Amino acid sequence: MRAPTTLSEFQLYGLVAPLDSHLKVHIARGISHRDPRDSVETCAEKHVLLLPALTSAALVEQQPLVLQYHNGQLLKGRITVNLVWYGSFTPIQRSIIVDFINSLSSPSAKLPSAASWWKTTDNYKGGSSALIVGKQFLHSAYTLGKSLKNKDLMALASKFNAQSNELSAITVVLTAKDVAVEGFCMRCGTHGSTRPVNGKPRTAYVWVGNSETQCPGQCAWPFHQPIYGPQTPPLVAPNGDVGIDGMIINLATLLAGTVTNPFNNGYFQGPATAPLEAVTACTGSFGSGSYPGYPGQVLVDKASGASFNAYGLNGRRYLLPAMWDPQTSKCRTLV
């Protein structure tokens, strides 16, 4: 298989060298980061392929993971999350995602919760970040067609920002399962910032695509059999929708990366062109005891068999990835 050379920033779930000496490698979902200095016309996705070292945990003590703070602006306080739905989403699908975002800043009576997961972002400099769903735009008519370029994503985000008066906001562009996006499957989502419009400051944006019919093995793991690596049985999606539950994982990853590194000068490890961020530094872990190809110990609903690790609003359940905690310099899971 040809190694990826463009568009993608790949993270590795990890590499293990078990006692039988068979090498197992699992390539994780790619999360791309866009440099805000790039223009709409010339913006290029930064990419990297992380090559693991062949080491044994029994012989080499793992060094603490440190995401350096680069003294830039973070998104703190009350943050409006505006949603651009591009393509066909059912009302149920939209409600799952809206409930998730609102759950992040609405403490649930049950623990572990989506809010307790998000609270780890409070440990980054500047205090808390409270996300509130704002306006929603439906583009069910596929006004830009069913095959989008990177510039189209930027245009959708920029158009919304031009109509918005929020000073602290994130625009999230969500594409339906039948929408092809440039570089999709080599990456499952991006975050970056739009250029200033009409004198307004640049605004953070996120894109996440529904991979259900295109590449669920790459972008909806562990709810689908992976394309590479150990072929462990997939988990049952907590909301009964592999594509949407996969989007939740990627959206959670990118929202955490956005508030802690919105303009490419916040918290990250490695080069700014290919940063490891709050969640991408911990890719592939959802519970204690995780290892390459195994998401870890999570909660399981006895009735449905669905796997999850966080309770949300309106009875929702979600599976959320590990996040790096600056207080401990470790990847933190909810269970």
UniProtKB/TrEMBL annotation:
InterPro entries: EXORDIUM-like (IPR006766). The keyword Secreted applies. It is found in: Secreted, Extracellular space, Apoplast. It holds the Pfam family Phi_1. Keywords: Apoplast, Secreted, Signal. Signal peptide: none annotated. It comes from the Eukaryota. GO terms for cellular component: apoplast. Belongs to the EXORDIUM family. This is Protein EXORDIUM-like.
